[in-house]
Amino acid sequence: xxxxxxxxxxxxxxxxxxxxxxxxxxxxxxxxxxxxxxxxxxxxxxxxxxxxxxxxxxxxxxxxxxxxxxxxxxxxxxxxxxxxxxxxxxxxxxxxxxxxxxxxxxxxxxxxxxxxxxxxxxxxxxxxxxxxxxxxxxxxxxxxxxxxxxxxxxxxxxxxxxxxxxxxxxxxxxxxxxxxxxxxxxxxxxxxxxxxxxxxxxxxxxxxxxxxxxxxxxxxxxxxxxxxxxxxxxxxxxxxxxxxxxxxxxxxxxxxxxxxxxxxxxxxxxxxxxxxxxxxxxxxxxxxxxxxxxxxxxxxxxxxxxxxxxxxxxxxxxxxxxxxxxxxxxxxxxxxxxxxxxxxxxxxxxxxxxxxxxxxxxxxxxxxx
Length: 369
Hints:
CATH class of the largest domain: Alpha Beta
Strand content: 5-15%
Structural class: alpha/beta
CATH topology of the largest domain: Rossmann fold
Order of helices and strands: HHHHHEHEHEHEEHEHEHEHEHEHEE
């Protein structure tokens, strides 16, 4: 093995930078094992650790992060995965992660994850861990995927889920009680006099979508109103165009709804746009509420009544839990994070809610003269 390693070393071009792969091949181990040795993780036998370190010395491989650790500058390295395009929630998560990283002296790598390709997602997680990631911040639906396949995925480092709709098995979570928040919001519409309330549901792979739908249905039942499948349309994504298609479908159904609870503010803004296309005034003809209290809730007219959950604060708290978990895990790799931290929310009322229109008024915009 030493002879083969020597041959590989001699054949390298002058100036060639030795990689983790080179060390792994020379030592006859996986790149994950080399990473564990470099980052001084406890889940490697002492004999194997010494063997890998000898190869590191023979190949003169000194990664920057290893040099930092040798100098005593141990900074946890956190991976933040995000699904698809950056929406207002993910933007707030990234800001919160960077604020917490500066305060806690943590390095953060932000990575796009292909959530529709499980093979690619597994490869991304493995590649990041091999590169030295000590723990992951996982927004929905990536968190649900990891929790659901914890024993199969190539992830051995701590992870914290951001804003799942419910506690996740085998993984820590920081969230709000989305079911109760949705219930409170729909109850507000019922208190305003609405009896036929529609719901634009979020994508079904996200647990938050399910929690908000459950809260919507619970509020109806509590007030003696039977949930009606004809009043619920699911959006393919938390995006404006998807929400617009869902809103057009919902508003075309009869009998008509007098209020709509959309699963996030972007979808609610799409409902407002669809209503205006039909000449329906909001809130005179249609009340609309959203979720998240993202900037779009104040940017549309009228401003949206919505649920405020502080994504930045949620992320900062998740980072605190994760960093503490990483430090504990470095000492004992059997440590697993499984706490469920529930942060408060509040209902923010704006001008998008009014009593339902009286029979015969309709609340439509009059035609131009």
